[in-house]
Description:
By secondary structure, the protein is α/β, with parallel strands linked by helices.
Amino acid sequence: MEPFVLIAPQGSSDRRGVQWYEDDNVWMLTSSSEDELRAYARNRFRAGLTAATVSLHGQSRGATGALFLAFWFPHRFGSAVANSFVSDYALARLEQVAARNRARILATGIPIRMTIGEADLASRDRVGSPRLHAYLDTLGVPHQYETLPGVPHTFAEVWKYRHTDGVQAGLRDLQFHQATWRRQR
């Protein structure tokens, strides 16, 4: 892997609390202001010099944010990975945003990857990941979708899952992002 900068915002554990995909935080990640987070990374670390080299990656509720930003602002990001999306309360909103911005999503070609563990107990009564996957197929939005055998909802378990080729899921996700960065140089 080439060097990269990782910024990991954390929203409230209460879904009624502040989430990183709400208006103030969306502005922090998508505006053209010099106070914006991507501008900070460009100025401080010389990272993310173009939108194509800035990626979204989220786990659980963070997956909701990553998908929301990728669907609403596909021109601002190079790729998006959503691990363990189970936030059914946000499903209708994500479907609406994906449908509304379908043309822009397709025009930018933003690579999208979704994973969910087969043993994800948080998804026992939830349909977020498989339903959104099917909806994106219906819209004709290219994306990757993968279920990870035996993997629960925890970030650490998702991250360290080893594929049959021996590559950890977390590394595979980072390589997914990095492949988009290389194409955009």
